[in-house]
């Protein structure tokens, strides 16, 4: 049989193929020749054939029939055969195939070989594709090589030990003695792999982390190595763009971050070296920026000094001025994570952050927008809203919904005056009305209703805003409602805030009729307009007959909703005209708090809503109360405020203290509870009522935040605010973040408090916590503490992570005194 062609000739031949079919034909022909050679047990050219097979595998063609030939090459005594054999094993084999177990004995023999390069091949292969069974069998040999004096073998053994620990975590203690002298090595390759090994051990075992902190004194050793790297002169072997071994520096900084997290002594020991790295690292090249970024992350993650944290934030501020888009994005993401803890330091870079809103890159724009909203407070709300409104006017459509929502929330929280608040929301509706949330219209109507002195000004502004433009439907809906309520003020020209306009009754009706017949008007908007026209029949005096005519026309509308309204309004004119003025009188000021009564807590995805108790039998298949009420035993005592499920009962709601609800009666003395008020369905339109509960209360800030939970990569922070309208109410905002590499899904947060408190959980912002701390879930808890007792809480967390359901309980007792006193 003629000698097979060489690998170079095969590559050259394949590259001459002009079509995919021609290439496939060449590959199939060569594979057939290789198979024939394998069948004839041709030892002379086995190495050459396997090398060609690996090249074909890299091109994407099947090469599984060469697996056993790789094992034969590994068993060979020639180094060239072993090299190709081990390379083939790493490419063609994995732990899902039983064939790989046949090479365990060969690897064991090669780990004890007299030649270091053969030992290195065996270590690389084991570290690349070794299964848990192979790792258990060969861990002893790896541990011996980790103690050898040969630097070439020690660095490979350290990386192989990392793979062994990942596959079989219980073997971690076997490598503990070998790690004692690893950091005393002068060779940078050994130092680098040693730091990787120590990082893996600290991340996987809290016991190992505590051991390295206390017993091994690992932090001083790492500080010494890092200091030598910074202070050492030019070393051509390790220099990258003028910086000595940046890869080792980054690895050390990451390990320091793990060691200093939640540990005062370790953090204190590394403060000085972190300051040196932050001030001495050259920033003209990307290498220096990478080290500075890792330094910033370490400073922010440990218990560092306030001055050091300000230095870290200033570094991120310099990153924002960098021409590289990736560096700017990284800076914005990092500032977004730190803005809650170091708000004032981040505020110094507000102008630079706002400038990023004009960036052409959409990712940078989104991060800058999120950070800008996080920086808004009572002092800068006017300036920040001006910039964000300008951004809303010019940004891409995919940003408008989030931007409008953020402006609504910030304006509601920090508005300096009601007029400014109304003007801001109207500006948003004018600019991006089609993108706002569904609750924007009722919230603005409630705000206008409660601002009695602004009625004339508001209705005049809205009237001018919709003249000839009905494209922004939410704006038209609010304007129709306000014209119907305050049309008499519009016609009388009583506006004092700005120059009044002269409008006649017919002109007002012309606008509303135009809304009714406009092709751009949605069915909901037409409903607002028809109701507004009906209301004007009691506010206007000269156009009642015209109003009757318009209403009667829509009695035969093909829109069922409009037809029903028109028929009912016609009946008002004909049969109940004496009741019409009373029915259509002006809406009263809407209360911000609802009256208390017996309530039921309805548990949804982390949301707790009050609902009036009904004495009706449960649906079939209802779980027992002991199963539905998971939080009853969270506080471990009998004074728990339970979650009340709807259950069949014939007892009245006033039967003593049996209904221990979270949001109901405030009378905690055991006196009878008043009968429940009837539940009235909210009308689909706003003629008769609006939701009376605002999204947020007026809040006074200044209470330190706490970390309520930090385990398995899930971190939950509590920030506190006190209500200005009711000092007994504490508003707690939870922020859940995820530092692991995979998202946490189906996240549900539940809480329980003693019965002397009352608790309300609002809806969470999402049920998915993004990985790598790239986003957070927020949820608002409102706690009523009328007796000003120290706050205690038990929390229950459930979520899915890495394909398995997770559940944990925790107790929170470290609430700051300002949150409950």
Automatic annotation (TrEMBL):
Coiled-coil residues: none
Topology in the lipid bilayer: Peripheral membrane protein
Entry similarity comment: Belongs to the adaptor complexes large subunit family.
Region (Disordered): 600-622
Name recorded for this polypeptide: AP-1 complex subunit gamma
Highest classification ranks of the organism: Eukaryota, Metazoa, Chordata, Craniata, Vertebrata
PANTHER family the record matches: ADAPTIN, ALPHA/GAMMA/EPSILON
PROSITE patterns: GAE
Domain of life: Eukaryota
Record-annotated GAE domain positions: 701-816
Subcellular location: Cytoplasm, Perinuclear region; Cytoplasmic vesicle, Clathrin-coated vesicle membrane; Golgi apparatus; Membrane, Coated pit
Function: Subunit of clathrin-associated adaptor protein complex 1 that plays a role in protein sorting in the late-Golgi/trans-Golgi network (TGN) and/or endosomes. The AP complexes mediate both the recruitment of clathrin to membranes and the recognition of sorting signals within the cytosolic tails of transmembrane cargo molecules.
Gene name of the encoded protein: AP1G1
Chief location bin: cytoplasm
Alphabetical UniProt keywords: Coated pit, Cytoplasm, Cytoplasmic vesicle, Golgi apparatus, Membrane, Protein transport, Transport
GO biological process: intracellular protein transport; vesicle-mediated transport
CC per GO annotation: AP-1 adaptor complex; clathrin-coated pit; perinuclear region of cytoplasm
């Amino acid at each position: 049989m003629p000698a097979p062609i060489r690998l170079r000739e095969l590559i050259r031949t394949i590259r001459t193929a002009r079509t995919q079919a021609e290439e496939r034909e060449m590959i199939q022909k060569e594979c057939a020749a290789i198979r024939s050679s394998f069948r004839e047990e041709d030892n002379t050219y086995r190495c050459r054939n396997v090398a060609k097979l690996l090249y074909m595998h890299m091109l994407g063609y099947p090469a599984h029939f060469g697996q056993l030939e790789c094992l034969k090459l590994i068993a060979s005594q020639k180094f060239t055969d072993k090299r190709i054999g081990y390379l083939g094993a790493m490419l063609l084999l994995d732990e899902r195939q039983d064939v790989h177990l046949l090479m365990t004995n060969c690897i064991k023999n090669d780990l004890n070989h007299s030649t270091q390069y053969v030992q290195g091949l065996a270590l690389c292969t084991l570290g690349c594709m070794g299964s848990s069974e192979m790792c258990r069998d060969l861990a002893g040999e790896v541990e011996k090589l980790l103690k050898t004096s040969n630097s070439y073998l020690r660095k490979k053994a350290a990386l192989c030990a990392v793979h062994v620990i990942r596959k079989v975590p219980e073997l971690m203690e076997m490598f503990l003695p070998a790690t004692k002298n690893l950091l005393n090595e002068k060779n940078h390759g050994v130092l680098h792999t040693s730091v990787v090994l120590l990082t893996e051990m600290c991340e996987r075992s809290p016991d190992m982390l505590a051991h390295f902190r206390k017993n091994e004194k690992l932090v001083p050793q790492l500080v010494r190595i890092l200091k030598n790297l910074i202070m050492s002169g030019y070393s051509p072997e390790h220099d990258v763009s003028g910086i000595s071994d940046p890869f080792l520096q980054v690895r050390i900084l990451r390990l320091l971050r793990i060691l200093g997290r939640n540990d005062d002594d370790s953090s204190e020991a590394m403060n000085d070296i972190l300051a040196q790295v932050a001030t001495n690292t050259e920033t003209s090249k990307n290498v220096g920026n990478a080290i500075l970024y890792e330094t910033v992350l370490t400073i922010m993650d440990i218990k560092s000094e306030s001055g050091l944290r300000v230095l870290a934030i200033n570094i991120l501020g310099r990153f924002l001025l960098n021409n590289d888009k990736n560096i700017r994005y990284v800076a914005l993401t990092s500032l977004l994570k730190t803005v809650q803890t170091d708000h004032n330091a981040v505020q110094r870079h507000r102008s630079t952050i706002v400038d990023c809103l004009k960036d052409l890159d959409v990712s940078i724009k989104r991060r800058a927008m999120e950070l800008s909203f996080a920086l808004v407070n009572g002092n800068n709300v006017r300036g920040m809203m001006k910039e964000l409104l300008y951004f809303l006017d010019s940004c891409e459509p995919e940003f408008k919904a989030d931007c409008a929502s953020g402006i609504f929330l910030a304006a509601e929280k920090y508005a300096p005056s009601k007029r400014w608040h109304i003007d801001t929301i109207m500006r948003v509706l004018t600019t991006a009305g089609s993108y706002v949330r569904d609750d924007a219209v009722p919230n603005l109507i409630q705000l206008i209703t409660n601002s009695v002195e602004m009625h004339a000004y508001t209705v005049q502004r809205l009237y001018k805003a919709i003249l000839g433009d009905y494209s922004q439907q939410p704006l038209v809906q609010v304007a129709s409602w306000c014209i119907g309520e305050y049309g008499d003020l519009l016609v009388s020209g009583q506006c004092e805030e700005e120059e009044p306009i002269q409008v006649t009754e017919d002109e007002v009706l012309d606008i509303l009729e135009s809304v009714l017949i406009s092709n751009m008007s949605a069915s909901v908007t037409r409903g607002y307009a028809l109701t507004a026209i009906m209301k004007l029949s009691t506010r206007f005096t000269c156009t009642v007959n015209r109003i009757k005519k318009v209403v009667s026309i829509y009695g035969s509308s093909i829109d069922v909703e409009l037809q029903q309204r028109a028929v009912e309004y016609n009946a008002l004119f004909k049969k109940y005209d004496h009741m019409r003025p009373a029915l259509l009188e002006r809406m009263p000021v809407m209360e911000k708090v609802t009256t208390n009564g017996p309530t039921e807590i309805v548990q949804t995805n982390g949301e707790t809503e009050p609902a009036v108790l009904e004495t009706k039998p449960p649906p079939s298949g209802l779980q027992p109360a002991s199963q539905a009420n998971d939080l009853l035993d969270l506080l471990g005592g009998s004074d728990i405020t339970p979650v009340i499920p709807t259950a069949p009962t014939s007892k009245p709601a006033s039967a003593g203290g049996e209904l221990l609800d979270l949001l109901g009666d405030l009378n905690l003395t055991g006196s009878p509870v008043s009968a429940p008020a009837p539940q009235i369905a909210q009308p689909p339109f706003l003629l008769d009522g609006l939701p009376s509960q605002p999204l947020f209360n007026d809040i006074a800030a200044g209470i330190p935040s706490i970390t309520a939970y930090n385990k398995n990569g899930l971190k939950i922070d509590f920030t506190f605010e006190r209500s200005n309208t009711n000092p007994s109410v504490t508003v707690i905002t939870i922020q859940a973040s995820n530092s692991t590499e995979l998202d946490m899904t189906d996240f549900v947060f539940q809480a329980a408090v003693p019965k002397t408190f009352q608790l309300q959980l609002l809806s969470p912002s999402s049920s998915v916590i993004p990985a790598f701390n790239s986003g957070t879930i927020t949820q608002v808890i409102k706690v009523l503490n009328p007796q000003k007792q120290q706050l205690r809480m038990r929390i229950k967390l459930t979520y899915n992570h890495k394909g398995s359901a997770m559940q944990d309980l925790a107790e929170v007792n470290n609430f700051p005194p300002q949150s409950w006193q």
